[in-house]
Amino acid sequence: MCGIVGYVGKKTNVLHLLIEDLQKLEYRGYDSAGIATLNEGHLFVEKHPGKIAILKEELKHKQIKESTVGIAHTRWATHGRPTQANAHPHVDCHQNIAVVHNGIIENFNNLKSLLIKKGHRFSSQTDTEVLAHLIEEELKGGRVVLEDAVCRALKKARGAYAIGVLSRWEPEKLVAARLGSPLIVGIGEKAHYIASDIPAISKHTSKVIYPKDGELITLTPTHWHITTLNKKPTQHKIHKVDWSYKDVAKDGYEKFMLKEIHEQPTVIEGILQRRLLSKGEICFEEMSLSAAFFKEVKRIFIVACGTAYHAAFFLKYFIEHLSAIPVEVDIGSELRYRRPKISKHVLVLTISQSGETADTLASLRAAKQKGCRVVSLCNVMGSTIERESDAVIYTHAGPEIGVASTKAYTAQMLTGILFALWLSQTRKEIPRQTLRKMISQLRSIPKKMKWVLKQEKECARIASKIAKAESALYLGRSFNYPSALEGALKNKEISYMHAEGTAAGEMKHGPIALIDSSFPVICICPKGESYEKMISNMKEVEARQGRIIAIATQGDTAVKNIAEEVLFIPQIQEELSPLLVALLLQLLAYTIAQAKGCDIDQPRNLAKSVTVE
After folding, report:
1. What's the whole-model pTM score?
2. 583-599 exposure pattern, b = at least 16 Cβ within 10 A, e = fewer
3. If you average pLDDT over each of 114-128, 238-252, 475-489, which comes out highest?
């Protein structure tokens, strides 16, 4: 869950370049940061606990010679607290090599004991440091080439890794490898890059390679070479990515999260333009499974984590609303503790923004072992989940930098809606008139989202009234029960307010005990089949003097008469309302966090992509 970058080329301002690139990965972890460069046969290492800005400030006071090769790291701590000693890069006993690492070396304790017996001295609590000493052991004082030493060392390690390695004996070489953790290679003009994610290097190049698990990458200013750990050459296509440097800039917004909230009308419109053809047909041009397969599907099993799980939960409601197919949803990290009854007639659908979510990936692999076909909804091309799925549907949300997911969530929901409609159409389970009406409603969503976003100041006013509350309850029914879960998660993530999302009908079975005159209850109550039941739940909250913040359909006076505050969405079919409700829940969480002075883009203890189990 860390971010790594590396560069080898002809530029001499490598420190500035690496720090700038690393800052674009700070959403992956920000407990500590460090950098290593090589110049004239000497290794320079600087690292500090805290955010990259602290490292950047410290570097201003150093006398550092220019260099043309370097690696850098921003950390989300797994083994060892965020301290200077535990920060990356890690070095060997004599500061001849430096290593940055994303992942977990599971057998590091055994390896460390063996290395200590051989005389190696350790200075950190991390699992990563064993890699530096293993490579040192294999280098034989520089008599072995770096890539050979790295290969031999990695064969002794068990776990997951994406690494970058420098050696003072080979000052124009950068060696990298990956297994179970994300890593990309950027191809530039007399320069090559490694990074955990595309935004880090999008300013420098649009040409990238996606190494596979168990591969080793050797980079010099003019050459790149990829082999297996057994030194067998492998073939790789150079991909052109369409994410520009501007996509990862704030564009005048105070925070990335706010920018990404406001990007949603454009993202949703782009998905609709890409997926809906002129005659109303739904197009998934990347779909590699036949229509015949989908006609034989007996059950759908959706797996995801975090916000993507809430999108998956919503899709359960939506698919079962349209189709005769039963749908089950599971959290990726819990699937391994069950024995789900899945077979070749079960479609497994995984959802992941990054395509690298470790628990979702483990579930995908378990499903394939049972003979299931896997379709994945994913935002990042070239990711591991994409490569290991039988088919992929891209969500086309663009890069999302804010740790709390916003536009990726609504893109997942919309892409899932379109998939559900396409599936029902393929199976001849949806009347043409129903399909046309739904598509017409979908086409109106971007305009309605823009209308919803005009309530940002109203959200801020409401947030200022409830920001001091210790806890909040989010209530929803039917299609908006997942919305309640997601709204509570957003609030927890960025404002640190304890928040609980629950099915409104379950309130009487326990959560109602929390309600008093200081307790905010966010009630999601758009017009639809669940409307009258939600009104009853709101009356129950009102009777206990709870502070009701309602989300209702424009013009709804009944809700306005009950609630202390109301935010509105335009008229829309209930099953599509979560696409609009999400924006208000995001804005409310954002403005509560803003009122509390929280670090919104980089909330404590979190990282964007959870790539470790």
Report:
1. 0.82
2. bbbbbbbbbbbbbeebe
3. 475-489
The question of whether 608 is a catalytic residue gets the answer yes
What value, to the nearest 5°, has the Cα angle with vertex 503 and ends 584 and 598? 40
Domains and CATH numbers, the chain: 3-247 (3.60.20.10), 250-443 (3.40.50.10490), 453-602 (3.40.50.10490)
> Exactly one of 407, 448, 490, 608 is catalytic; which is it?
608
Tokens of 98: 């430096």
Whether 93 is catalytic: no
pLDDT of 243: 65
d(CA 229, CA 346): 36
CA–CA gap between residue 259 and residue 275 (Å, rounded)? 24
- Nearest one of 249, 577, 604 to 404, comparing CA atoms: 604
Residue tagged active-site, from 2, 305, 372, 459: 2
**Radius of gyration over alpha carbons of the chain, in Å?**
25
Cβ atoms within 10 Å of 382's Cβ, excluding its own = 18
H/E element holding 594? helix 578-596
Residue closest to 183 by CA, chosen among 35, 385, 382: 382
Three-class HEC string of 210-252:
CCCCCEEEEEECCEEEEEECCCCECCCCCEECCCCHHHHCCCC
Token pair for 406? 């916003």
Q: Write the pLDDT tens digit of every residue in 432-478.
A: 899 999 999 999 999 999 999 999 999 999 999 999 999 999 999 99
Could you read off the pLDDT of 152-182 as tens digits, one per residue? 999 999 988 999 999 999 999 999 999 988 8
Q: Which residues contact 61 (CB under 8 A, 6 or more apart)?
A: none
